[in-house]
Amino acid sequence: MRAFTAERDWERFHDPKSLLLALTGEVGELAELFQWLPADDARELAGDEPLRTRVGEEMADVLLYLVRLADVVGVDLAEAARRKMELNAEKHRA
Amino acid sequence: MRAFTAERDWERFHDPKSLLLALTGEVGELAELFQWLPADDARELAGDEPLRTRVGEEMADVLLYLVRLADVVGVDLAEAARRKMELNAEKHRA
Amino acid sequence: MRAFTAERDWERFHDPKSLLLALTGEVGELAELFQWLPADDARELAGDEPLRTRVGEEMADVLLYLVRLADVVGVDLAEAARRKMELNAEKHRA
Amino acid sequence: MRAFTAERDWERFHDPKSLLLALTGEVGELAELFQWLPADDARELAGDEPLRTRVGEEMADVLLYLVRLADVVGVDLAEAARRKMELNAEKHRA
């Protein structure tokens, strides 16, 4: 993502607030794929084609902006997720 | 909105969680209009046509789903906003 | 909202992208009130106290930031909503 | 995430629409950390403690719900992201 952005000279657009709005936009597109699905059938419907590919594309967009934001602010996203899972395990004992 | 929904037999789609995802979708579309604008120029750029009309349309979509959600859960949105402004005025004294 | 903001000297914070992130934050708080409710019971549960008051407060926050954003970019929100309803009525004939 | 959810008997809560609202909630919390930061200083401010740790925690929450949603609907998120990066590289030639 860092190389992709640099090669296109897009770094000047990638301040944190802009990336967060882009992330919000992609979450919105993902939400639109699910909004009118019946809650009980949503898992099955989203797991079948052609919806599954579209869902995967929007989820990828969310992930890519999240990874880009992490890079810009210097967060190690994988490490943060591991730590959060440990905190969650302590907070909510099985 | 209530009549519009009833005339199209869309009431069965308008449970709160679905409306909230639709609201999220519209906020996402609004965010996409602003995401790459330079922060310092965003107000002026969004105030000029043709962007202003598009911004107005997306803001209208957010408002319409918010009003519809309020109707579905029985919230008086105008009254809730008045009360919240009073609470804000107490919380943040000028 | 305009007076409230001016009296607190908060106008410098209220550029469109910041207001949009604040709107996203409030939509997120509203979503959190509904996220784990069973879809079929969400309307009834959110219509009962104490949840209804909390839902009203979060919906008010969304509305207030939306109104503030409209003011900042010069959108007549009520007029935009009326026009959007007319467009919707043409697009989706009953 | 799958084991964590199963051990707490939370699978019944993790339908796609509920997970999407939870994701929206976490994106909202992340947005709240940035909303009033000056755009030009946001990167530096968010890269310093104590904000960086809080940003990392909220980003982790977004990632964890995204990963959980991917598991529920059967999307290979890493593969989807790789494919999306290839599509982006074709769409936006450097």
TrEMBL record, chains A, B, C, D:
It holds the Pfam family MazG-like. Keywords: Hydrolase. One of its GO terms (biological process) is nucleoside triphosphate catabolic process. GO terms for molecular function: nucleoside triphosphate diphosphatase activity. The keyword Calcium does not apply. This is NTP pyrophosphatase (Non-canonical NTP hydrolase). It comes from Mumia flava. The lineage of its organism: Bacteria, Bacillati, Actinomycetota, Actinomycetes, Propionibacteriales.
